[in-house]
Amino acid sequence: MPQPPEGFRAALESAFRDAGRPKPALIALEPIAGGSINQTFLLRAATGVFFCKWNAAAPAPMFRQEASGLAALQAAGSSLHIPRAIALWPDTVAEDTAAAEPGVTGPAILVLEYLEPDADGPSPKTWERFGRGLAELHRGSEDRFGWAQDNYCGLTLQENGWESDWPAFYARKRIAPLVARLAGKGALAAADRAVYDSLLEKLPDLLAHHPVPSLIHGDLWSGNFLAAALGPALVDPAAYCADREAEWGMMSLFGNFPETVLDAYQESWPLPEGWRERQPLYQLYHVLNHFLLFGGSYGAQAMRIATRFV
């Protein structure tokens, strides 16, 4: 068994203790692929096999909010499979910790139910089931846009709260905070900031199609989709209630999903007229977030999108 990261065992034991579970007796710990932000492991213990996410310097509530998002996706009752959160640490219950102390980070661990992958990979039938299941998920909603607590998209704090007006929510809670953070770190020239300010003013007209609030995964690219033996599954959500077209913004940007998914979705719940023209506006949020997290050419890509609409 490879040597676990420093602090891993103590955090794992604390997570199981806080969940009211017996101390896990490790049999094997196998590193597996799981994205660029966290270390991920297949954890074999005497009591079962689990998927484990570890971060040596994560925002304190990040994994707690991920577990909350998974629970919400489960509660929606779609045919998609969502892994159960088994244990996490720290399991803080302080309200608005992320917003109050955005700079506070430390070791964090999240243990999830392990979903055995389909040995044959995704089949055309899997993609069809995914499209239909996603439409089912999107029918689960509140009567407002947003979420009860702030959560995370990657390592970026995702501001929430509730708003009855979708363009206002998208402007104030999605685009404007990223623009402000990028400007604050000197990543935007004055002329760039002016373009984004102009776009924010125009969003009410650009998003005037009156969507209903839909529960979305919020960060749905191919790495957060699993072709599990049980069927299509989703992990690592940044969940909130949104225009369901926002889900397709990320899916069409980094998703690499076959057209079969869209076809099955459209058969279940057709997207409204003009949705393809609005897609770049929803891609913009994720491109700006990647610019904030990774820099590079994402800044130019985001500016091309913004100038297209102003």
CATH topology of the largest domain: Aminoglycoside 3'-phosphotransferase, Chain: A, domain 2
Helix/strand order, N-terminal first:
HEEEHEHEHEEEEHHEEEEHHHH
The CA-CA distance between the termini, in Å, is 56 Å
The radius of gyration is: 20 Å
Please list the strands of the largest sheet in the order they lie side by side.
1-2-3-5-4
Note the beta-strand portion. Answer: 15-25%
Report the helical percentage.
40-55%
* Model regions low in confidence, pLDDT < 50 over at least 5 residues: 94-101
| CATH homolog superfamily of the largest domain | Aminoglycoside phosphotransferase (APH), C-terminal lobe
Number of strands: 13
Question: How much is the average pLDDT?
Answer: 93
Biggest sheet overview? 5 strands, antiparallel
Q: Classify the secondary structure makeup into a structural class.
A: alpha+beta
Helix count, DSSP H or I runs of 4 or more residues: 10
- Reading off the top of the CATH hierarchy, the class of the largest domain is best stated as Alpha Beta
CATH architectural group of the largest domain:
Alpha-Beta Complex
Principal-axis shape:
globular
Task: Please tag this protein with its features.
Aminoglycoside 3'-phosphotransferase, Chain: A, domain 2, alpha+beta, two-stranded antiparallel sheet, 310 residues, single chain, 21% strand, five-stranded antiparallel β-sheet, 10 helices, globular, Phosphorylase Kinase, domain 1
